Amino acid sequence: MQAVGVVVEYNPFHNGHAYHVQQAKKLTKADVVIAVMSGQFLQRGEPALVDKWARTKMALASGVDIVIELPYVFSTAHAKQFAYGAISLLQAAGCQTFTFGSEDGRLEPFLDSFVLIQQNKELYDAFIKEFMTTGISYPKALQEAYTALQQQFPGTYIDLAKPNNILGFHYIEAAHLLKNKIQPATITRIGAGYHDAINEQSQIASATGIRQALFQEKVLQNINQFVPSPTYQLLEEWQQVHSTFASWHTFWPLLRFAILRHTPEQLSAFPDVSEGIEYALIKHAKNALSFNDFMDKIKSKRYTWTRLQRILTHIYTGITKQQLHAHTEPSYIRLLGMTENGQRYLSMYKKHMTLPLISRVAATQNDMLSLDIRATTMYQQGLSFHTMNDDYNTPPIRR
Amino acid sequence: MQAVGVVVEYNPFHNGHAYHVQQAKKLTKADVVIAVMSGQFLQRGEPALVDKWARTKMALASGVDIVIELPYVFSTAHAKQFAYGAISLLQAAGCQTFTFGSEDGRLEPFLDSFVLIQQNKELYDAFIKEFMTTGISYPKALQEAYTALQQQFPGTYIDLAKPNNILGFHYIEAAHLLKNKIQPATITRIGAGYHDAINEQSQIASATGIRQALFQEKVLQNINQFVPSPTYQLLEEWQQVHSTFASWHTFWPLLRFAILRHTPEQLSAFPDVSEGIEYALIKHAKNALSFNDFMDKIKSKRYTWTRLQRILTHIYTGITKQQLHAHTEPSYIRLLGMTENGQRYLSMYKKHMTLPLISRVAATQNDMLSLDIRATTMYQQGLSFHTMNDDYNTPPIRR
Q1: What average pLDDT does this structure show over B203-226?
Q2: Which of A29, A366, B98, B297 is placed for a possible disulfide with B5 were both Cys, Cβ 3.0 to 4.6 Å?
Q3: Which residues of chain A lie closer than 8 angstroms to B381, CB-CB?
Q4: Using CA atoms, how far apart are residues B44 and B41, in angstroms rounded to an integer?
């Protein structure tokens, strides 16, 4: 059996995702699709709309055969580490290929961009250094250095100003670091851009657009046309149980409590908290009227929205620099769910996997896994769960 | 002008308190009554029903002239440290005497009990050691040693099994440690025992009884006869603004969040967390259905209700062993409020006080004070305050 991997958040699973899964199978002639999916907290530093089990159900109902969890350490990290964790896990799970979305379905611009930087590392670094002296931010300097490199060596490259392209670039890089035992492929993304609002004429909307519609209009019906019916049903069930979707808006009273419970010195133990941002966090947490008001008060050129949200995620979950940075390599494959087809694959290939497959967390003692469990516990607090859907009592979803 | 001091929590201020204040003034012929009052968290390890400003208003409306704050470090400590902090502050504020409630108004049994232990320290310690070997708890062993000492040296002593007597004992001890520059006196407590439920025939009820009535029956009218009318009005106003009184029941979602956000190792940084209680806290915080359910699950012979509540107070406020134990001597007199009469006293004697008088916290940098400010911030989180009654923006109450 052949397996193709995809790297996903499914926040929530929509028609564009269903299309990608279908095409991934077709393009690679794979028998099973394995999705490595972020757990409760996502790469932009946000809680997922609904928990990882609900999102696993959505995926299994719409074409994915196996869902494994991208550990918290990677799911909340910057693109490079996020991609490395994800591709490592897909390789460990036995995928021969992985696919990712692109604007035009051509892999070459990604490969060429990677080679461009790879082969001109010294020049690239010199450019970055030079641009940094002009006082611009590090990400901005990376961008400018990349442009300068392209002028030096003309060719067809990807635009690294686009978030999806940055991820694609780092997937290629990860495959390279993993000695290309797992092969990349790309599939044209259809219908909607990464952050586009929903469009009533289409069946495809970005996850960002769908979330906006859910939070701003609060009418689930509005997104019906953009998601497979199992997603719709699962969102409806979730809303009935929790009366809200998870967001920083929902979690704000607890986040504020977490911030104010620390001294500035204690806050600086959390990842990426430095340069005095700890004082601003405390000062504005006291007076902010809402999460958005808080963010408006603390954001700056240096501290972008995403960077701040990642910091807040770690403060919220209580996961320190020391705990987060103790781990750089995935050490397990956490199974969140599988179809019958997925189960067949696992039965056949489990023993060949290069990392242990974990179905029951209670049987495992692993520091990296303990952070995933913590993330779930804290996610649940935000929704005032009591005893449901705990990492210990939720077995892998079967479909 | 002569000042008499009282050590209080006023949770809430009731008729028994009003009687004590009146008698204290009469007995000592003092011109002003100074109350050293616990801030937002109390000696039994609980948040106060209403905040320190509301309680200050109650006191000033019913006979107290000056209210100063007993810092968090002392207000949440065991009896010995609580009493030492309180009596030190009353002395520093210029009180020649202090009064406390007793069953029969006789001071001698307190003094004799103190001298009994003081003069037979070695024998007392030997008794304690002996009783500890039988496997009983430390407080129990203290109790037994005290009984044994009384048998050896017959006399009229106080019963140290009663919480109020324990406090009285430690007030005497504190005065002794402070070289008896401040003199103790005692006033007969009338009407109700420390923990007695309310009695419809009486005008006196214990604060415990009043709180029970407020939480269990939720009808403010039921306590009307037991409190001065300003107390009643202030409780009514509070209820209108916050719709609830502060309690662990109200604070439970935040307390649970605080516990679960830590590893067992991190929890052991909080005062008195040791011997594995950190594991029990995390385990039961996950599954408990309410604060009371949680307490039932974690309490034991070794960890009594009060001891646990004090631990939980420190976890809730985020105040660590290191922060709490850095301070053993009061270093400021924090003014919470005063009447005109109180203000006259302060104007005359302020410069003779042996500690700085603080009216505005913003002007002061003091580590012990920063814990009081933190306690207020965290107290407010439990009631979902936004920007009201902060330590920085609330000047002393004037009446």
Answers
A1: 87
A2: B98
A3: 253, 256-257, 260
A4: 8
- Chain B residues closer than 8 Å to A281 by CB: none
User: Which residues of chain B lie closer than 8 angstroms to A261, CB-CB?
Assistant: 258, 317-318, 378
Residue B180: is its pLDDT beyond 90?
A: no
Question: How far apart are the CA of A240 and the nearest CA of chain B, in angstroms?
Answer: 21
Interface probe, candidates A251, A257, A259, A384, chain B, greatest B C-beta count within 10 A: A257
> Are A384 and B253 inside 8 Å of each other by CB?
yes
Under the banding of pLDDT at 50, 70 and 90, the label for residue A362 is: confident
**What amino acid is encoded at B69 in this protein?**
E
- pTM to 2 decimal places: 0.92
Q: How far is A12 from A211, CA to CA, in rounded Å?
A: 8
SS3 B392: coil
pLDDT category at A196 given cuts 50, 70, 90 is low
pLDDT in tens, A255-268: 999 999 999 999 99
Return d(Cα B60, Cα B247) in angstroms, integer. Answer: 24
**Integer Cα distance of B215 and B239 in angstroms:** 12
The Cα–Cα gap between B228 and B22 comes to 13
Provide the sign of the torsion angle of the four alpha carbons A59, A63, A68, A69, taken in this order.
Answer: negative
Average pLDDT of the residues in A163-187: 94
* Inter-chain residue contact B384 with A253, CB threshold 8 Å: yes
Spatial distance between the Cα atoms of B132 and B302, rounded to a whole number of angstroms: 13
For residues B370 and B154, what is the distance between their CA atoms, to the nearest angstrom? 47
DSSP three-state, residue A158 = coil
Q: Which residues of A touch B286 (CB under 8 A)?
A: 377, 387, 390
Q: Is B286 within 8 Å of A261 when comparing Cβ atoms?
A: no
